[in-house]
Amino acid sequence: MKKIKLKKGEEGLSHIPNEELMSLYQTMVKIRGFEERVSSLFSDGLIPGFLHLYIGQEAVASGICENLSKEDYITSTHRGHGHCIAKGADVKKMMAELFGKETGYCKGKGGSMHVVDVEIGILGANGIVGAGMPIAVGAGITAKTNNKGQVVIPFFGEGATGIGYFHEAVNMASVLKLPIIFVCESNQYAEFTPRETHLPVKTIVERGGAYGIESFLVNGNDVVEVYQTMKPIINRVRNGEGPFLVECVTNRWSGHFEGDPQRYRPEGEIDEWKKNDPIKNFRSILTSEYHIQESSLVSIEEAVKLELDEAEKFSRESPFPNELSTLEDVYA
């Protein structure tokens, strides 16, 4: 268990290009805005099924995916909106999919937990806990065979490390030396169960040693730390090293699903985590330490709101799929 050691001169915001800082902020704001928007639409009865919101965890997906290219792969989870947005997914198609409309990523038949866009390396969110990891191993084999420097990142929660998928995937990735970075988002709960109840170890990174891979612990609420930790690790993977395991410690502000009363959480716990809001903290750093103009950040926030307004309008006006489409895209 360790944190990445930056080379001399790499520390601090001054070594992140200005355009990347702004891109990070835009991505985080877009994720938060999307999640708040769909939460409201869900409450109004316009979105069917389940929603598992990413609010509070924005720094993880944003800091990691900023270092990725279109050709790199990710696999996501049931709480996957943030990963997909950070990787470049079209929020119009995402929102339409949540509405169950035919203009969505899966023609309205996949819903919140099954957003996929292979063209930009999103190999799918997944309603089955941990199921993205063996898919990532397959993508890792492809990436190693192609030898084009591609990186594969499966996202998963700490609850997924107690099932077979995790151990099989990490073991095979280690044996085959695949270009994979396993990213555990430790948001403190496996559905309704606190981590101390179901984990016999204090950190997930301790499990990496059993498979002979380097593991790193990151403050998942600090987008700068996430970005700077992942950058050299991703570069090492591109150069043929890997796999790696990275644990990002964060917290989900919402329940396991939208509507979850969260009676299992101690009183005041969410309020304490909200004091460490990753977006507010980053915004403060940008203005006070990097001297980004407040007006520039406001412009980003306004542009994101307009984009989400257009996505909502697009989704409301899009048609539902016809009945015959239920027989399409089905494996038999």
TrEMBL record:
Tell me the keywords, alphabetical order: Oxidoreductase, Pyruvate, Thiamine pyrophosphate
Enumerate the Gene3D superfamilies for this protein. 3.40.50.970
Molecular function GO labels: pyruvate dehydrogenase (acetyl-transferring) activity
Q: Which InterPro entries match?
A: DH_E1, PDH_E1_Alpha_Subunit, THDP-binding
Question: Dehydrogenase E1 component domain spans which residues?
Answer: 27-321
Which GO terms are recorded in the biological process aspect for this UniProt protein? pyruvate decarboxylation to acetyl-CoA
The prosthetic group or cofactor this protein requires is: thiamine diphosphate
Residue runs in coiled coils: none
| CDD domains assigned to the protein according to its UniProt record, in alphabetical order | TPP_E1_PDC_ADC_BCADC
* Protein name, per record: Pyruvate dehydrogenase (Acetyl-transferring) E1 component subunit alpha
Can you name the source organism? Neobacillus vireti LMG 21834
